[in-house]
Amino acid sequence: MGYNDRGGNSRGGGGGGFRSSGPREMHKATCSDCKQETEVPFKPSGDRPVYCRECFQKHRPARY
Hints:
Layout: E1 27-30, E2 37-40, H1 53-59
Antiparallel strand pairs: 1-2
């Protein structure tokens, strides 16, 4: 049985998957709606639409 210095947490990592290593790397993209250049916190793959902040709010499903 190996020694686990995380107090028995076998999932490892912890912290909910959020990085705490400073600001996120941003990638340039063109909004699929308004065609304005924007920056997103992920590398767009090209197979899904990317929206700027304003257009994303319009496309987001309503929360109940």
